[in-house]
């Protein structure tokens, strides 16, 4: 029995520097331009964030500036052994990731107008009389790093000339990230206290290491006639997330590294000129962000069954059913949310001495089912194309850790997580894509027209969901938005309209605020936004000059039909713009390029 062995070793390293200074300024450092960058004190100067009830936020983003320095080192080694009908692979990889930098929260403050003086928030702005203001005290520079050690074994077993069985097993040890100086702080629900990591039995990462990440793989391919006319493929596998980082970095925003001061008009009204007077400020009760001590690595089970066949003319047709079930996905809730009711929040919170407590845990789950159709023509007779259609549905109870377009992914009622199960924020029911590459014929065989290529890409897809929300804490449970939850309205009618336009995409009157001190009954992601379609095309040709010089001419058009692709409509109930579409993706864009290579 013949056999051969091949060993493949790879090493990689990359480093990224990214500075986001203001809401409209983001680039990778001043030094690349030969400029002296501004000091940190200068970066934290600027306009506060203005929150005016019933209107869009004004001023600078309260989460800026942000500075990131990341470094990623990667080693991998794979040994392949071909022996008879077995093709064995055995290998592993080692990864080290390091991130330093900082994110400032409310460094310039936030000024809030609610209409407390005149009954109208905008009138209070004109008078310069805010209801209250916030100012963050940041001393939370970050230095996170982690290691990952992964290994696998796989056997591609050719049982017969028409059947191949794939068997594999992967194990992943992804150590949770730790701070180089153990500056993280967690909230312990048992003792109801903030604890430093690395002391008193608290792990340095704040969470225990998950050692149970085994991922089996199984696949089968059967060429029924032995000619490629009809091939059946099926497979199953378990796949793990690469580990947390953003979630762990949130523990930098706990005392003593971060504190939030509140300024109110108890001793006299605030003014825009004195929005953060020292004598009127007091530290709010801690509002920690913490991870579940028993946090586990998220994973998903994937399975599929498909048919493919060569129908002639270099065209292959495929049809597949694909399913996915996600488990132990990252989710979050307010551990210290009181039940709706009257009276001060602090007196009704279940854990005294603390404000909101954002608890990050591995309690999310998801399901995804899809029918995928595909047609592929290999390049022949100057033409190739690839067309695909997907009909799918994705459901979960938390689409991501951070907010996504249309919802911030924090539950309205942290005691009723079942109410969050709905369409995923990234659900696309229908999606069609078609790409084509065609070498144009040259008329009368003239050399100038020879070698031109036309390529096109057509994309058509249905819209993504969004969740109507309230701007104010109607339930009186601490749902103030941001990283915490929003109250949702009551659904009092059918939001679907027979005729939709940007000025009224859905029926805004179908939503209304619930009674005072109540959660709304409207579900998450119950409105589907506008779809998207675009035609992109390019015409190009490469000219050869001598033996080593080439010139490429390329003309491109994006959204060639100039179709308006609207973004999600306004989702805040009560705003004058609720239900209206306020923005769109770019219209038709043309681009000409000339490239010289040698």
Topology at a glance:
Blueprint: E1 3-22, E2 25-27, H1 40-43, E3 49-52, E4 58-59, E5 66-83, E6 86-103, E7 110-113, H2 121-127, E8 132-138, E9 142-160, E10 163-174, E11 178-179, E12 185-188, E13 193-196, E14 214-223, E15 231-240, H3 246-249, E16 258-264, E17 281-283, E18 289-291, E19 299-312, E20 315-334, H4 345-348, E21 358-380, E22 383-396, E23 422-423, E24 430-439, E25 453-461, E26 465-466, E27 469-470, E28 490-491, E29 511-512, E30 527-528, E31 532-545, E32 549-558, E33 572-573, E34 589-597
Parallel strand pairs: 3-7, 18-21, 27-33
Antiparallel strand pairs: 1-2, 1-5, 3-4, 5-6, 6-9, 7-8, 8-16, 9-10, 9-11, 10-14, 12-13, 14-15, 15-19, 16-17, 19-20, 20-21, 21-22, 22-23, 22-24, 24-25, 25-31, 26-30, 28-29, 31-32, 32-34
């Amino acid at each position: 029995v013949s056999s051969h062995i091949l060993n493949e070793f790879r090493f990689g390293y990359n480093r990224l520097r990214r500075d986001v200074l203001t809401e409209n300024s983001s680039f990778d450092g001043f030094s690349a331009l030969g400029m002296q960058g501004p000091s940190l004190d200068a970066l934290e100067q600027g306009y506060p964030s203005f929150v005016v009830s019933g209107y869009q936020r004004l001023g600078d983003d309260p989460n800026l500036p942000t500075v990131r320095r990341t470094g990623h080192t990667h080693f991998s080694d794979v040994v392949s052994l071909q022996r008879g009908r077995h093709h064995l692979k055995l290998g592993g990889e080692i990864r080290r990731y390091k991130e330093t930098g900082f994110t400032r929260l409310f460094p310039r403050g936030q000024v809030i107008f609610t209409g407390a003086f005149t009954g109208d928030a905008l009138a209070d702005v004109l008078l310069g009389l805010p209801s209250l203001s916030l100012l963050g005290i940041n001393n939370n520079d970050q230095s996170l790093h982690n290691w990952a050690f992964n290994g696998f074994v796989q056997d591609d077993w050719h049982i017969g000339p028409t059947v191949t069985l794939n068997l594999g097993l992967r194990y992943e040890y992804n150590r949770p990230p730790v701070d180089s100086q153990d500056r993280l702080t967690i909230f312990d629900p048992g003792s109801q206290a903030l604890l430093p990591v690395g002391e008193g039995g608290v792990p340095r990462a704040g969470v225990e290491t998950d050692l149970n990440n085994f991922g089996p793989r199984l696949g089968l391919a059967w060429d029924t006639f032995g000619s490629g006319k009809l091939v059946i493929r099926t497979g199953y596998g378990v796949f793990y997330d690469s580990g947390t980082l953003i979630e762990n970095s949130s523990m930098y925003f706990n005392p003593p590294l971060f504190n939030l001061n509140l300024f109110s008009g108890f001793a006299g009204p605030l003014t825009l000129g004195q929005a953060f007077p020292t004598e009127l400020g007091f530290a709010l009760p801690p509002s920690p962000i913490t991870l579940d001590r028993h946090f586990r690595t998220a994973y998903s089970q994937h399975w599929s069954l498909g048919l493919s066949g060569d129908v002639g003319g270099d065209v292959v047709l495929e049809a597949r059913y694909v399913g996915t079930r996600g488990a132990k996905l990252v989710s979050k809730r307010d551990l210290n949310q009181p039940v709706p009711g009257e009276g001060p929040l602090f007196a009704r919170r279940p854990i005294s001495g603390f404000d909101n407590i954002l608890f990050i845990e591995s309690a999310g789950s998801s399901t995804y089912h899809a029918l995928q159709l595909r047609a592929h023509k290999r390049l022949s007779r100057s033409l190739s194309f690839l067309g695909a259609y997907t009909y799918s549905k994705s459901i979960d109870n938390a689409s991501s850790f951070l907010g996504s377009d249309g919802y911030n992914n924090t539950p309205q009622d942290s005691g009723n997580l079942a109410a969050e199960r709905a369409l995923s924020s990234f659900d696309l029911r229908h999606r069609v894509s078609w790409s084509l590459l065609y070498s144009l014929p040259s008329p009368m065989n003239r050399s100038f027209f020879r070698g031109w290529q036309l390529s096109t890409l057509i994309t058509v897809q249905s819209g993504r969901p969004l969740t109507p929300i309230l701007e104010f804490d109607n339930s009186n449970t601490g749902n103030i938005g941001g990283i915490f939850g929003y109250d949702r309205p009551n659904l009092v009618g059918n939001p679907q309209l027979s005729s939709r336009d940007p000025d009224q995409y859905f029926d805004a009157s179908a939503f209304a605020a619930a009674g005072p001190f109540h959660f709304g009954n409207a579900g998450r992601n119950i409105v589907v936004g506008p779809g998207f379609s675009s035609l992109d095309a390019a015409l190009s040709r490469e000219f050869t000059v001598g033996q080593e010089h080439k010139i490429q001419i390329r003309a491109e058009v994006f959204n060639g039909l100039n179709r308006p692709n609207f973004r999600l409509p306004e989702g805040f109930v009560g705003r004058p713009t609720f239900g209206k579409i306020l923005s769109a993706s770019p219209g038709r864009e043309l681009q000409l390029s000339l490239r010289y290579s040698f």
